[in-house]
Amino acid sequence: MRLLIADPESARYADLLRDAEPSLQLHGSDDPAELARLAARCPVWLGAPDLLAPLLRGGARPQWVQSTWAGITPLLADDLPRDYRLSRAVGVFGQAMAEYVLTYLLAHERQVLSRAALQGEGRWDTRTPHGLGGRRALIVGAGDIGQAVARVLAPFGIELRGIARQPRAIEPFLEVAGIDQLERLAAQADYLINLLPNTPDTGDLYDAGLFARLPRGALFINAGRGTAVVDADLVAALQAGQLAAAVIDVCREEPPAPDHPFWRAPNLLLTGHTAAPTPPTAMARLFLDNLARHRAAEPLLGQVDFARGY
């Protein structure tokens, strides 16, 4: 079977897959012209959606595409075909995302950035820091990544609540409710953490009304999708002190335009879409698992429902 690997780390993926599945004929690149030349001869593709979307737009038709991203937005454009199997990366980002969230919760409570700024001014900072114990976190997007984040946060004594597509009991959350309960649970949250994918139902969720529901001085983290946030409302909530701080990994436009207010908003940190990079070893394992499922005509892990958008 010919496999097209479209990713900046295509050589690394090729090494991992060649050892595990010698029968694969591997063709990899991150050069658009080279990928366009190879695509039509490869029935299976593995790679980054932004590199794969132009191949579909150019007329190549795979049987199955395995995304190396959790998000597959570039492949959902209205002008692209949907007559193939598509699976997104699942089960590979939990550890990295949990480390990201924990980093900035601790940095917030220990006042790391403001202490560094005061040091630069030659000022001795004697403020008493806070801890995580007893804080209340709402994780919006309690899927496999959100659950991994919750498992890492739970030992610190954080009260965990979640939002998912369907209300259900999930350890270690005290409650997991549907999206219709977002405002109610946000009113109890010291930390509001967005991990939702980009779908027709998740746009502009975080607006002035929702930020006003949060306890004054809450922290907002967005490591889901930029389209979920009304940018001007977030900046206004920071300026008014309704939010103590925001950590923003994803934006509507990346990078934001030079005149975007995010660059100058008070207590807003941009982390450049680096929260959870794809780990090639774990991604290769997922691909091989799904390859066996594809050959057996079984449902794929992370198989995308085009109608739902994930």
Automatic annotation (TrEMBL):
Matches recorded under SUPFAM superfamilies: NAD(P)-binding Rossmann-fold domains
D-isomer specific 2-hydroxyacid dehydrogenase NAD-binding domain: residues covered: 103-275
Key words, A-Z: NAD, Oxidoreductase
A family per Pfam: 2-Hacid_dh_C
TM region(s), chain numbering: none
GO function terms (MF aspect): NAD binding; oxidoreductase activity
Gene3D superfamilies reported in the protein's UniProt record: NAD(P)-binding Rossmann-like Domain
Matches recorded under PANTHER family: 2-HACID_DH_C DOMAIN-CONTAINING PROTEIN, D-ISOMER SPECIFIC 2-HYDROXYACID DEHYDROGENASE NAD-BINDING DOMAIN-CONTAINING PROTEIN
Protein name, per record: Phosphoglycerate dehydrogenase
Organism: Pseudomonas kuykendallii
